[in-house]
Every structure is written in structure tokens, then in C-alpha cells.
Amino acid sequence: MAERPEDLNLPNAVITRIIKDMLPEGVAVAKEARSAIARAASVFVLFATSSANNLAQKHKKKTVSAQDTFLALKEMEFDKFIEPLQESLEVYKRSQQNKKEQKEAKAKAKKAEEADKNSGSVEDNSEDGDVSNTMEASLTTDKENDDVMEIAE
Amino acid sequence: MKWSNHTQISRLETEMASPSKSPTTQSPGKSGRLSSQPSELMLPTQRVKMIMKSCPDVETVPQESLYLITKATELFIQYLTQQAHSQATDTSSLRYDDLATVVHSLDHLEFLRETIPQKITWAEAQKLMEQYDNKFEGFH
């Protein structure tokens, strides 16, 4: 597969941002230094990926698991990354789960709405059930806006 | 009273709108910690995925591994920056040579020595070439 050289580069703007955030204010970052770091970052991705992939293949697996990635980082002597990465991964997994639940709740509410329309009757007993579904959906979305809600009061 | 409430809300909304500056984030450089962003990524995962796939034998890249490698790379950029700057003689700037020095002095950065070679002056290069020529005298 032919890849254009720029496709294997990471965006300069983001890399510059990360570098600047790491340094005290006012430190000038030479263009050559920034491009060296950018190249190093791409090489890091390759190195980490191939190490993790080798570990996966050793265990006869086809895909690179999170476990393989952590072990690879340990092999590369980047142990100090493992703990912050584990924490970040936990938060990431939770937010992915939340998004999934919100999506499902919305779909459920929409379905209930449509069922409501189809039934045609406004005084159905099922209406109560529908209302609680829509309330659940709005409760989960309101959670995110807690801070804003407090100030509004 | 109402007006100040309104500005507070709009400030919070703008903070929440831009993912890289959530209210809970402190600037890593100021506090010295490696990374204080909980789970937000700055690097684009699609680009990282492309680099990963350019590795031979890599087939599918699961979501979790992609997240981890992307996040690890961000930590790596921070780490490399911090290390290079900490041993720089002139701390008001970050120069190429600072990177080259740190890569050639830390063992676990050995994999970067070809990517960030140390620079030598033209005079030093000439000297090396002369030595090389002398070595092979008589074999021309």
C-alpha cells in the first residue's frame, strides 16, 4: 500500500500545543526542535505498535490488545506511562459507556413516542410508562449540565 | 445580578465547548505532572491508526489499543520535551541539539538515535573524512 509521506506525520499544530503546554511560558521552541519531536513521535508510534504486535503474535493472537500495549511499553522502559494510561483508559471506557447508554435511552424514548402515536389514544395507561422513559432520557443528559443548571438557579 | 449570572454561564459554556480546555484541566507544565487531562485526546486517532497500519503484520486495531497508543504518544511528546529542556544549557529556548543530546544520553531513547542524529560541525566532519581516507590508503 503506497502512503504519501505526509500521511505518516502527526499534525504540527497539535504537537506544538503539547510542547508549549509542557514548557514554562516564554520558552522559544526552534522549528528544527519541533520537527525532530514530531518525527520522534511517529517513530514512537511505530516502535510501540510493532512491539505490542510482536507480543500479540507470540500468544497466537491476531489483534493487539490493551494488555499487549501495556506490556510493550514496559519492555520499552516507559513504565512511568502505565499508571496514568490505566487511569485515562478507565475514564475513557466510562465515557464511552455513558455515550452508549444515552444513545440507547434516546432510541428507546423515540421508539416509545412512535408507539404512542400509533396507538392513537391519549388516555392510554401506557402513557405513564412512556413519560417515565422520556424522563429517564432527559435525566441522563441533564447530568452533564449540572454545573450550568446550578448557576441558572 | 441577572447579567453577571449570564456571563458566568456563557464562560462555562465556552469552557465546556472546547474539549482541550475543560474546567478540570490544569496546565501540565505549570504543575510538573505528566498529564492531567482525564481522557480527552489531542492527537487525531485516524492519523495514529494510519501509522500503526503501516506496520507489517498489523491487521485490525481495536478501539482500546488505538486510544492507548495515541495517549501514550502524547505522554511521550511531553516526556521528551521535558527531558530535553531540563538538561539544556540555555533554558530560554528549546533547540534541536537539546533533543539530540538527550536522545543520545538516555538508554531507553536509543531507538531515536537515527531519527535525531547528533550534529557535528563541518570541521569535525572533514576530520572524520580524512581519518576514513587514511584508513584505506593503499586500497584504492
Number of domains of chain B: 2
- What distance separates the N and C termini of chain A? 58 Å
Which bin fits the share of residues in helices of chain A? over 70%
Overall shape of chain B: flat
- Measured as a percent range, the helix fraction of chain B is 55-70%
Number of helices of chain B: 6
Task: Name the shape of chain A in a single word.
Answer: extended
Structural class of chain B: mainly alpha
Q: How many structural units, i.e. domains of chain A?
A: 2
Question: Which range does the strand content of chain A fall in?
Answer: under 5%
Structural class by helix and strand composition of chain A: mainly alpha
What percent of residues of chain B are in strands? under 5%
- Average pLDDT confidence of chain A is 81
Radius of gyration of chain B over alpha carbons? 23 Å
Series of H and E elements of chain A:
HEHHHHH
Output the CATH class name of the largest domain in chain A.
Mainly Alpha
InterPro entries (chain B): CBFA_NFYB_domain (IPR003958), Histone-fold (IPR009072), Transcr_DNA_Rep_Reg (IPR050568)
Pfam family, one (chain B): CBFD_NFYB_HMF
Main location (chain B): nucleus
Subcellular location (chain B): Nucleus
